[in-house]
Design a protein that fits this description.
The protein is of the alpha/beta class and 220 residues long. It is 46% helix and 12% strand. A six-stranded parallel sheet has the order 3-2-1-4-5-6, with helices on both faces. α1 crosses α4. It is globular.
Length: 220
Amino acid sequence: MKSEKDKNYELIIFDWDGTLMDSENKIVNCFKKAVADVELDYPGDAAVRNIIGLGLKEALDVLLPDYGDSIRKEVVGRYREHFLYLDESDMPLFSGVEEGLEKLRQQQYLLAIATGKARIGLDKVLEETQLGEYFITSRCADEAISKPHPRMVLDILEETGVPADQAVVVGDTSYDIQMAHSANTDVLAVCYGVHHRDDLKAEQPLDCVDDFDSVIQWFS
């Protein structure tokens, strides 16, 4: 891995959960409640944390492989109900996120989001945090193939007209790194999210940083 970027970028594509927002506990709580609502065995907190970043369909392929579509649809419905309306777990932005995004904007970077969230979920948190103004576009798992497939990044590159070699993905999971590699973009890993530093380093990002302030320093 390199200790710093070796070129200038035009476009930074951020993951959301675990990269900009500390939503791990809420996601775990909502999935636990959704599974209980449908009276299924809970696969455990560690298993749920490991699938954060995937779309719901892909997450359930991992977490509930022995259940059919009808059961999975019930779980998805209950999860969304808890996440959007019922559960009141805090989801703070990581320290320095808003100030850091403003610095990147002042430095003339284009900013985008590629997330495992559904569109309704991303729109909700963008409205609540009032961060939507920083991003020129976003792509969600219900609009494209989920990570680690590169479709979300490829769609963003096509929409913005930025070549892959002038774009970089920033994310906290192996899925983000795999997505970036498949899209032929560079990738910066953050080690304060849901996947362990060793797992991230094994996927060979350019670098792995410990807080959001270090993300901003990396691009400065």
